[in-house]
Amino acid sequence: MSRVHADANAILGKSWYDYDNFRIDWSPPDRYEIVRRLGGGKYSEVFEGVDMLNSERCVIKVLKPVAAKKIKREIKVLRNLTGGPNVIALLDVVRDPSARYHSLVMEYVEAVDWKRLFPILTEGDIKHFTCQLLLALSHVHEHGVMHRDVKPANVMIDYQRRQLRLIDWGLAEFYHPNVDYHIRVGSRYYKAPELLVNYKYYDYSLDMWSVGCMFASMIFRKEHFFRGSDNDDQLLKIMKALGTELFDLYLKTYNIHFETEIDNLLINYPKQPWTRFITAENRHLASQDALDLLDKLLRYDHGQRLTAKECHGELFLTGHFGVDFFFSSTPIFQ
């Protein structure tokens, strides 16, 4: 059971989380015009669009054919959370006359690609945008929702406007205590250990591991901090950093039965100090305060990870990121 907000959905009531019985009023698509493709994935294609009524830019996410339940869940989550701090705003839901194509219309964000962004982030940038992400997740978790796919591609950063939006709620789910959830969520480089050992009783702390991975990427200036070639190799990368002693304790604590035929996963690895990942290039970012915060996020035991609210408090108060940095960053992208 989550140590925070475990009863959030019970308090908010069935109408808040019951997406199975959620009725969607679809709009016709005539109001919107597609301008260009922005990207796509397993479940959708994403386009820049224009709202012909007011000439404002928007994002049109065209959903690929999936179960109606999944569509309802994503729209219900977005409807519930829209208006929350740094959560992408859902503007409209449209369906073509054949009822074959369903699309979500959302606010447009002038985002900078992560590959361009992570190598040049300053101390002030890291604090500012991490705080914004934590504010979003604090709101989301307080309202009973796990995002389950936090990663740079789903964290849109408008560097010029100093704004961040958490997007892509297709894998999000409402949290209920003692419910076993699907483990095929998240993206490999940001998957928490519980997913990699098939532990289904996870909670909001799943998202906090992913925040830790992003924080490590920023302070160590690595595009992806744990970069496994498959799920087994992903777990191996984690074990080589966090060690096997704490991994074995984690399995024992939660009575997780973990079997593997991968020889490298059966070797004992010592826990590495975070200072091992410091280089001349990242030394100015990886202070002891930053490493201490990172250590409280990247933990096997999900019950020991900082919550979004706790992490935001520590990040704001830590001497590593003084208040002056919060205001002093000069935009790099013109």
Automatic annotation (TrEMBL):
Subcellular location as annotated: Nucleus
InterPro entries the record matches: CK2_alpha, Kinase-like_dom_sf, Prot_kinase_dom, Protein_kinase_ATP_BS, Ser/Thr_kinase_AS
GO cellular component term of the entry, any: protein kinase CK2 complex
GO biological process: regulation of cell cycle; regulation of transcription by RNA polymerase II
Binding site residues for ATP: 70
Superkingdom of origin organism: Eukaryota
Catalytic activity reported: L-seryl-[protein] + ATP = O-phospho-L-seryl-[protein] + ADP + H(+); L-threonyl-[protein] + ATP = O-phospho-L-threonyl-[protein] + ADP + H(+)
Keywords, in A-Z order: ATP-binding, Kinase, Nucleotide-binding, Nucleus, Serine/threonine-protein kinase, Transferase
Keyword Nucleotide-binding carried by entry: yes
Quaternary structure, from the entry: Heterotetramer.
Protein name from the UniProt record: Casein kinase II subunit alpha
Protein species of origin: Mycena rosella (Pink bonnet)
